[in-house]
Amino acid sequence: MAADLEANPEAVARAIVLRQLTNSPKSRFQLARKLAERNVPEDVAEAVLDRFEEVRLIDDADFAEMWVRSRAQSRKLARGALRRELADKGIDAETAEKALAQVSDDDERNAARDLVARRLRAGTDLSDRTERDKQTRRLASMLARKGYQPSAAFRIVGEVLDEASSGDAESHGAGVRGGGEAGDIG
Predict the structure, then answer these.
(1) pLDDT by residue (tens digit) across 126-165?
(2) 134 with 98: CB under 8 angstroms?
(3) What is the rounded distance in angstroms from the CA atom of residue 48 to the CA atom of residue 146?
(4) Other CB atoms within 10 A of residue 73 CB
């Protein structure tokens, strides 16, 4: 590889960039870092990256939009966490904000509610104050790790727990009908 780099550093740089882009989309910053790790001269790296941008194989705005869409849907990350991830990938603040605009407040709130509802342990006695507080802390911490603001996290967790406990009270008060297992159609 060292001999190849000396012989034709531009061809080596192109090969590295193409291999990186084949694995997954990358930002220009990530590709520049990879080229630096492989000891590609900076002027060669810049020329190759510029050419890849000209032919639109590298586009930080497209990358940022795709990243936000993917991570918001699959990981249910809040805009704060997505903003940090984009910064780590070398996306400038203006480009990041444009990409983050596709996630609305409602999208973020619904994603958080969905996460909390899915992570709420079935059979938890929410009428027991100690248990409810424990679940609140656990679920709000989970949301915080995903980039949600603490005030929003606690509010959303409280709403979902209130709905779950009122749903439990209704099902207990009305009596459970049918004898089938969960998921049975009858």
Answers:
(1) 888 999 999 999 999 999 999 999 999 999 999 999 998 8
(2) no
(3) 36
(4) 12
